Amino acid sequence: MSTEFLDLPQLISAGGTVRLPGSKSISNRVLLLAALADGETEIRDLLASDDTERMLDALQTLGVGVTSSGTECWTIKGCAGVFPVKQAELFLGNAGTAFRPLTAALALAGGDYILKGVARMHERPIGDLVDGLRQIGADVTYLAHEGFPPLHLKPAKIRPDGVVSVRGDVSSQFLTGLLMALPLTGKTVSVDVVGELISKPYIEITLAIMARFGVSVEREGWQRFTVKAGSRYVSPGTIYVEGDASSASYFLALGAIGGGPVRVEGVGQNSIQGDVKFAEALAKMGAVIEMGPNWMSARAPAGGLLAIDLDCNHIPDAAMTLATTALFAKGTTTLRNIASWRVKETDRIAAMATELRKLGGVVEEGEDFIRISPSTVRTAAIDTYDDHRIAMCFSLAAFATPLRINDPKCVAKTFPDYFERFASVTRAAPVIAIDGPSASGKGTVAARVAAALGFRYLDSGALYRLTALAAKRSGVNLSDEPGVAAIAGTLDVEFSEADICLNGQPVGDAIRTEEISAAASKVAALPMVREALLFRQRTFNTAPGLVGDGRDMGSVIFPRAPLKVFLTASAEVRAQRRYKQLIEKGLSANLLDLLLDLQQRDERDSQRSVAPLRQEVDAKLLDTTELAIEAAVNQVLMWSKEAL
Length: 644
Ligand code: DC
Known about the structure:
21 helices; 5-stranded parallel beta sheet; binds 2'-deoxycytidine-5'-monophosphate; 36% helix; UDP-n-acetylglucosamine1-carboxyvinyl-transferase, Chain; alpha/beta; single chain; 5-stranded mixed beta sheet
């Protein structure tokens, strides 16, 4: 798994407008039908993402003319049902919306093709689709395990007009794939759906897009679908892809949790996507929803959100968003009829349950349901299972706590710039970052500013001091970088008004001795130690705000802090202040030694390779050589009025 992560601060509010990227389901269907059609199709607002790239690559490999005029506008030269390349090996990543329909189309297209994907794609069942295709006469071989990709397709011997049965209760993509491919047979074929058809709205999307390309499917309820002989795809000329309704769900939920209104543009009441019904589910939870032809918006209800008990069969993807929204609702939320979650990018029921529990949610999981009761939320590092929706869903939890999202780039599957848009409609708990050399007075200033604003205070130097103390107590040598980092990563610390507790014991002045000061400066130069303390420091970024002091608050830990202060004073003045402090505490001290020590530590803190002490370009300089503490505090408070 990738070691990349994204740390989200706690959010305070949400509001604004987001233009949605194109729908994944519509994009890949339109691409395939444009390729199969007679004539040239200009596709506008196509989703630019991993899944559509897989489809575009595949079509190019098959000899289809594909040209782009900008990332979201493509021209596809249709091959009128006959792919120019008759033998090819296609790699389709983890894109179900490319794999299933291409399997069906290529099985009936009269060539020799191998279809592969990533390991997870090879765990996602495709047997029901293959069974359906074989009934028409397709020649499909499983290259690894019966019922799963990779597949080898050879030219089909199309059987005379007939009826095909396909299961509808595992994935609606099987029926979609079959229906879209049937015009290639040249015959009349009916598809009978066995079992309850799930995700019906996705079939509506399929039928609507087929109709745009000139093929109308006769249907008897949700049981039988017939494609008539002579049906063929014809380009509609230019076609616009709607915004992604599933992607809309995260922003609507943000509005419902974080105040709002958050408005999404690109889908609305005229949408052909079933996931717009997510808005109804959110309304049932109490959110205030408004809608126009091409937009929707959500606001939080005055009394807070309420739990729901919902059959989610009609909104399988967007329903995941309800699972994390449930953390903010009063009562127990039950999402039912979601067995299909288990065969998606990952086993989504299991993944959801595991990650919600990490946050403190009380979760019950069944074969086809999940039940969530909110409880005291705690911070966590969320794993995303190479599943874009898990990453996006859990970003909502940032309203309850700062958290880490591992491998955040998995959102590229459907929404590459999700987190940028997310940031654009949310307001994070602000941070005032105060950096500076030892004994510059920044600790006192930071603590007073925090108290004046009612913010939390982070004394980051204390974490390095505690690490040094804990290392010393457990006999770990300071040159043993992994050993010291392990201590830093598992420090059992509690900060309270009165004191800092290490392993449940107040540390008092034990971390303020000259010996520990020198040791802290040494452990602070170890990159693995800094890495181990990074997330812990960021978890202090809670509502209503934080004042952090240290050396790298503004540069590394909180680079987006709206106010950064570089607080310094001459070395002589700082040595005098330290001297006074020590004497007042009844400790012995020598002014010259203190000055030399300070200078040495300044040197080490500012010359080290990781996170050296320096004034950031966007930091305000506050020199306290001739400034009393009170005046310094007032200056920072004044700046904070402008910046926050
Ligand atoms: O601020 P302080 O004197 O309590 O810090 C103790 C040591 O930790 C000091 O040598 C610098 C280091 N430190 C750091 O490297 N980064 C921080 N954010 C805070 C402190």
